[in-house]
Structures are given as structure tokens and as C-alpha cells.
């Protein structure tokens, strides 16, 4: 009977193919959506794993760049129990780097990239996130266990150089990412190296920086950051010394992190003390909302796919009434006819799921070729299984009404309908 | 023994009621060969389909070997059609997606086809002279060949009753003769009851039972 159902589908290849496409595209959508959000979630988790302290920001500030705090808070936080390290930071968008303002940057890197024969991937990466300057209170940061950028420094044999230390206080020295080193390559196309220089600001305010270290976190959320001394950054970013952007805090025991965070929020009412797993849950919730929204759109597409199957199966059952009459005449029950038609649409669903899955695998593989910044789309067997299962369920649902209609016919009417 | 008592069948065509059968009573002995004749639209097919349990009469009763079709449940009717009734139609009604052999096996497809059933189907196709056509599709067969497949399909269940609705209506007269020869032969060999609707009296033999219908009623004098 399954073979019979299968043959019935093959009899009308064009119609079958169309219905198949109609359902496989939304299945592709579902799989793509989940693989992107899964990839994003992994990336965020990876990124946040690198930052294990508590980040203290102005209440409701979305990121350090938009936060300002009273520098006195450093002392007050340091005085709280179980606080081990407290390090102030200043964050901001530098006016321009190497004479490129960031409005123009996207366009020019695209153009230059083409001129230099850069790969699509390199140029795409250049278009991602902006460059951010971070000034660190160097002595305080040297005591940190989980200093993100210092820990991500390239090994010396790969040209990693060194991180900022006491010698660099007040000096125009800077640590940049491997990505930025490539973005700001010299006219010869050579990426910047340790010992090379970098100009930040333009005109009279332009300042020359020596690159002393190169890091690579592998996360596109972090690799746009250049790190220098806090007072140097103040000068470049025009930040008065009556404020800092954020304060990075480590507890004496990583397990006391949330305790410390609550203590900080209790002591300083106008700040948010964000733990990373809290940020991670925030982000996960955001992704969840996004997922829900996209899922709604995909559900609509799925609905259209199912309607396509209903339509296909209605056409195919309507023109086969005589055939169902013959089957009933030969003792097939209503249930047998119902099963036959449902089996046909289940096959449709199965194939749509397989086609959608193969497309999704191809697109994810392609996507991972072109998307950098540490974002890896994931499409595991579980997700594929879910996609195919969903597709079969959709196929069966789409086939139920036509199947019911076909099975309901009185055999005599079916025969006569067919004879006309 | 088929015992038809006062059978009524009406169709609704919009607001109109069509009385296709208006109280038909007749008896067909077991193993007989009966012909239902009459003008077009007189209700011949309707009576035949009711005998084959393809629908229920609006009134009256039909008993076949003591079993009352009118009182049977849906499931019993399915089983009855599957196991006891062989049907042959004017337009052959083979299924285009199945080979000749698979068409013969249709009654058993939902429950699985055993090797012995398959052998039986092949033997029947041999009997109707289609040994070398078993794996052909209906569209690769001539009308006469298709009707012979339909005969094999009707006989695979060893039916007590074979019903044929104008089985030669779409065939030329030579092929028609051939079909009747096969039907007659198999019927006498197996001693099944055969009921044939036709308006071609050419095939009727003196000792056949003839039921003549006009306007949904039996003419008793024939
Ligand atoms: N499904 C139906 N709906 C309405 N009228 C029908 C239907 N089937 C048959 N009829 C009518 O019932 C009468 C008997 O039909 P039928 O049994 O096919 O006659 P015959 O086989 O003798 O030509 C005809 O008048 C026909 O038009
Ligand atoms: Mg008729």
C-alpha cells in the first residue's frame, strides 16, 4: 500500500514537485532560523565565558560606551566584602583611525578590499561592528584574573607582542585585535604588526600610537576593541577625569560573584552590576523573543505550505474518485482509503523535509564560509530530525481533509462520478 | 440464492427526487446466470450496485445466501465486498498506476499480499490468457485485455457472486464474444452466481434467467 501511495505521487511529477517546494522552503526557513539563533547563542556564551567578573555600569546603560560613573565608586566598591579586584575603564568611539572616519569606513574598506583583491569573506568582516577605544586603569587591570584582552593575546611566535603594563601608563601605546590589524593594513596590504604605528584622530588632534600587542578573541563582539591607557583614552575621547565608563570587579571567589553583584547594587543605587551569566540569560531571552517572532513568520509560511499540500491532494483525490470507488468496491474500508491518501501526503511531507534539510545544510555550509567573527551556524542531527519530522506532520495534516473527503464517498457514487 | 424483496432506491437531484427502483422483488438461484435488461436509465445499474453492496436501498431487503445486506454494519459490508463479490464494469476500472498483476491483487493490498495470493493471481491471469501481460500497465493493454484483468480481479476472492455492468459496452463485438466466453467458462467451472447487466440480448441463452426492468420496475412476463 505504501508502494502504491508512492506510485500515485510519481504519476504527477510536476504537481508533486510544486507542492514539495511549497513545503520545503518553510522547512528550510525553520532550520535556518534555528541554526542562526543556535550559532548566535553559542557565540554569546563563548564571548561571555571570557568575561567572568561583574561589570558595573550606569543603571540602564546598554553597554560601557553609553555608561558613565563617578570615579569615587571605585573606592566604595573596593571596600565591599569579598571584592578582590576593581578596575576602572573608559570606553568610546574614537573620532577616526588612520584618517578614516567610521561613516566612511564601511564604504572605503569595501572599495579598497576590492582593489586589493580581498576575498568576499574579508570584506564582509570589515563591514561588521565599529571600532571602539577602551582605556584601562593599567595597574588595576594587571591584578585581574579574567582580563579578556590580555588573555587573548596572540602567542609571541605569532606576533602577539605584549599587553599593557606599568611602563605604558600615560604613553601612546595601544593593543589591537588581529582583525583591526588587517582592517588598517598599510598601503602595501600588509596587516599592521607589533612595532607599527597607528594614527587616531585627525587634523591638529591627530595622535600617533605604537602598537605593542595584538590579540584575537575570535568573537565579533569583542574584536573591534583597541586598548590603551585610561588617561590617554580620556584625551582622545574627550572624557573628563570626573567620570569613568564602567568598573570591572572580581570577587575573591568566583562563586561569590552574584553575592558581590547584589552588594554593589545595594550600596550604589544608580548602577547595574551585571554578572555575565545574567547577561547571557538576558541575551538568551532576547534571542528567544526573536525566535518567537521569526517562528510566527515561519509558521505562516508553513501554513502556506500546508495549504499547498491540501490543494495538491484535493486535486489529486478529486480526479481519482472513480479509483477510490474501485478500491471500495473491492472491499477497501473507509480507513484504508484514508490511510492511502494520508500516506501519499506524508510522503510529500517527508520529501519536502529531506529537500529542505539538504538545502539548509548547503546554505549553512556556505554561510559558515562567508560569515566570520566567531559566528558558527549549527545544524545538528537533532535539528535536522526535527525539521523532517515537522515536515511529515505538516504533510499528514495537509492530507487529512482530502483523505477524509475521499474516504467518505459512497462507493456507488464514486463509481458513477468517475464514469462520467 | 439471492432474495430481493421490495427494494426501493431514490436519488436526490437538487430538489427533485428520482425514483430509480420502485419496489423490485426477485430471486436468483445459486449458481444461476442472470441477465438484467432494459432501456437506458431504467435502473439496471442501480439494482446491480445494490446487489454488490455499493450502497444501501431506501427500502426493502436484499439477502444473499441468508445474509441480510440491509442490516449489515459498514465493516461487515466492506468485508463482504472484499471476500464475496466480484465486480466487472463497463469501463474496466483498472487502476492506472498498478500493473495487471497488482490490479488483480487490489482487494488484498491493505492487509498485505502473501506469496500464495500472488501465485493465485498469476494463475488467474494465465487462465484468462494474459500470461505474458502480468507486469503491463493498463494503458499498455487493449480493451479486451483490460477487461480480462478485471475478470481475474473479480475472481481472485472466489466470489459467491459475480456482478458485471455492461462488460462488453466498450468493446467491439468480436472481443465482446471473447469476454462472454471467458465469463461463461469460469462461471460454470466455479459454480458462482453471475448477474450481468446488458442491453445486448445476443449473449442470453435459453436457460438463463432474464430480469427485464422498465422505469424502476420488473416486467414479470419475461
Ligand atoms: N447519483 C445519481 N443521482 C441522481 N440520479 C441518478 C444517480 N444515479 C442514477 N440516477 C438516475 O437513476 C436512474 C437509473 O439509473 P441507472 O441505474 O444508471 O440506469 P441504467 O443503468 O439502467 O441506465 C436514471 O434516471 C438515472 O438518471
Ligand atoms: Mg447503467
Automatic annotation (TrEMBL), chain A:
Write one Pfam family the protein is assigned to: FtsX
The way it spans or sits in the membrane comes to: Multi-pass membrane protein
Q: Where is the MacB-like periplasmic core domain?
A: 16-266
Q: Where are the transmembrane segments?
A: 20-40, 293-314, 346-366, 378-404
Q: Name one GO molecular function term.
A: transmembrane transporter activity
Location(s), subcellular: Cell membrane
Q: Name one GO cellular component term.
A: plasma membrane
Which residue range or ranges hold the ABC3 transporter permease C-terminal domain? 296-409
Keywords, A to Z, come to: Cell membrane, Membrane, Transmembrane, Transmembrane helix
- What coarse category fits the chief subcellular location reported for this protein? membrane
**Family the entry assigns:** Belongs to the ABC-4 integral membrane protein family.
Query: What is the protein name for this chain?
Result: ABC transporter permease
Q: What is the lineage of its organism?
A: Bacteria, Pseudomonadati, Planctomycetota, Planctomycetia, Isosphaerales
TrEMBL record, chain B:
Instruction: Note the superkingdom of the native organism.
Output: Bacteria
Please name the SMART domains in this protein's record: AAA
**Family matches, as InterPro entries:** AAA+_ATPase, ABC_transporter-like_ATP-bd, ABC_transporter-like_CS, ABC_transpr_LolD-like, MacB-like_ATP-bd, P-loop_NTPase
One of the record's GO cellular component terms: membrane protein complex
- Cross-referenced PROSITE patterns, in alphabetical order? ABC_TRANSPORTER_1, ABC_TRANSPORTER_2
Is ATP-binding included in the keywords of this UniProt record? yes
Membership in a protein family: Belongs to the ABC transporter superfamily. Macrolide exporter (TC 3.A.1.122) family.
Q: What is this protein called?
A: ABC transporter ATP-binding protein
Source organism per UniProt: Tautonia sociabilis
Give the classification, highest ranks: Bacteria, Pseudomonadati, Planctomycetota, Planctomycetia, Isosphaerales
Amino acid at each position: 500500500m505504501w508502494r502504491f501511495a508512492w506510485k500515485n505521487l510519481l504519476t504527477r511529477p510536476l504537481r508533486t514537485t510544486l507542492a514539495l517546494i511549497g513545503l520545503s522552503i518553510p522547512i528550510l526557513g525553520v532550520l535556518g532560523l534555528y541554526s542562526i539563533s543556535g550559532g548566535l547563542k553559542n557565540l554569546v556564551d563563548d564571548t561571555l565565558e571570557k568575561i567572568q567578573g561583574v561589570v558595573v555600569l550606569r543603571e540602564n546603560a546598554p553597554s560601557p560606551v553609553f555608561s558613565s560613573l563617578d570615579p569615587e565608586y571605585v573606592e566604595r566598591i573596593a571596600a565591599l566584602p569579598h571584592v578582590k579586584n576593581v578596575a576602572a575603564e573608559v570606553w568610546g568611539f574614537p573620532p577616526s583611525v588612520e584618517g578614516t572616519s567610521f561613516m566612511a569606513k564601511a564604504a572605503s574598506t569595501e572599495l579598497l578590499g576590492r582593489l586589493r583583491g580581498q576575498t568576499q569573506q574579508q570584506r564582509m568582516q570589515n563591514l561588521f561592528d565599529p571600532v571602539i577605544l577602551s582605556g584601562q586603569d593599567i595597574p588595576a587591570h594587571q591584578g585581574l584574573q579574567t582580563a579578556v584582552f590580555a588573555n587573548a593575546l596572540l602567542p609571541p611566535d605569532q606576533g602577539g607582542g605584549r599587553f599593557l603594563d606599568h611602563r605604558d601608563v600615560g604613553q601612546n601605546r595601544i593593543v589591537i585585535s588581529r582583525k583591526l590589524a588587517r582592517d588598517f593594513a598599510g598601503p602595501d596590504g600588509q596587516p599592521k604588526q607589533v612595532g607599527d604605528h597607528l594614527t587616531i584622530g585627525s587634523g591638529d588632534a591627530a595622535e600617533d600610537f605604537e602598537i605593542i600587542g595584538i590579540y584575537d578573541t575570535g568573537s565579533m563582539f569583542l574584536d573591534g576593541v583597541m586598548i590603551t591607557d585610561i588617561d590617554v583614552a580620556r584625551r582622545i575621547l574627550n572624557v573628563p577625569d570626573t567620570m569613568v565608563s564602567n568598573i570591572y570587579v572580581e570577587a575573591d571567589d568566583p562563586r561569590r560573584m552574584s553575592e558581590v553583584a547584589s552588594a554593589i547594587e545595594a550600596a550604589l543605587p544608580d548602577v547595574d552590576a551585571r554578572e555575565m551569566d545574567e547577561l547571557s540569560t538576558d541575551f538568551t531571552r532576547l534571542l528567544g523573543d526573536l525566535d518567537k517572532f521569526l517562528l510566527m513568520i515561519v509558521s505562516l509560511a508553513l501554513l502556506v505550505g500546508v495549504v499547498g499540500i491540501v490543494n495538491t491532494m484535493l486535486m489529486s483525490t478529486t480526479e481519482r474518485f472513480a479509483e477510490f470507488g474501485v478500491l471500495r468496491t473491492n472491499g477497501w474500508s473507509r480507513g484504508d482509503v484514508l490511510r492511502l491518501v494520508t500516506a501519499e501526503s506524508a510522503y510529500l511531507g517527508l520529501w519536502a523535509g529531506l529537500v529542505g534539510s539538504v538545502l539548509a545544510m548547503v546554505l549553512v555550509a556556505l554561510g559558515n564560509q562567508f560569515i566570520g567573527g566567531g559566528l558558527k551556524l549549527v545544524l545538528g542531527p537533532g535539528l535536522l530530525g526535527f525539521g523532517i519530522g515537522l515536515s511529515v506532520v505538516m504533510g499528514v495534516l495537509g492530507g487529512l481533509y482530502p483523505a477524509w473527503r475521499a474516504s467518505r464517498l459512497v462507493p456507488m457514487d464514486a463509481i458513477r462520478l468517475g464514469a462520467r | 440464492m439471492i432474495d430481493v424483496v421490495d427494494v426501493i432506491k431514490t436519488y436526490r437531484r437538487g430538489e427533485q427526487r428520482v425514483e430509480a427502483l420502485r419496489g423490485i422483488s426477485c430471486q436468483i438461484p445459486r449458481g444461476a446466470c442472470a441477465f438484467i435488461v432494459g432501456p437506458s436509465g431504467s435502473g439496471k445499474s442501480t439494482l446491480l450496485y445494490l446487489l454488490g453492496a455499493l450502497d444501501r436501498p431506501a427500502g426493502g431487503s436484499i439477502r444473499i445466501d441468508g445474509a441480510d445486506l440491509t442490516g449489515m454494519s459498514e465493516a461487515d459490508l466492506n468485508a463482504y465486498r472484499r471476500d464475496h463479490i466480484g465486480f466487472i464494469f463497463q469501463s474496466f476500472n483498472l487502476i492506472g498506476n498498478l500493473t495487471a498483476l497488482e490490479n488483480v491483487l487490489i482487494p488484498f493490498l491493505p492487509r498485505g499480499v502473501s506469496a500464495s495470493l500472488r501465485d493465485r493471481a498469476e494463475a488467474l491471469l494465465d487462465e484468462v490468457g494474459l500470461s505474458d501481460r502480468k507486469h503491463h500497465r493498463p494503458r499498455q493493454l487493449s480493451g479486451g485485455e483490460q477487461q480480462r484483468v478485471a475478470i481475474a480481479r473479480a475472481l481472485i476472492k472466489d466470489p459467491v457472486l459475480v456482478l458485471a455492468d455492461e462488460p462488453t459496452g466498450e468493446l467491439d463485438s468480436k472481443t465482446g464474444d471473447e469476454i462472454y466466453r471467458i465469463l461463461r467458462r469460469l462461471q460454470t467451472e466455479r459454480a458462482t452466481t453471475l448477474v450481468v447487466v446488458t442491453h445486448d440480448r445476443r449473449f442470453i441463452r435459453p436457460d438463463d434467467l432474464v430480469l427485464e426492468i422498465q422505469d424502476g420496475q420488473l416486467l414479470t412476463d419475461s
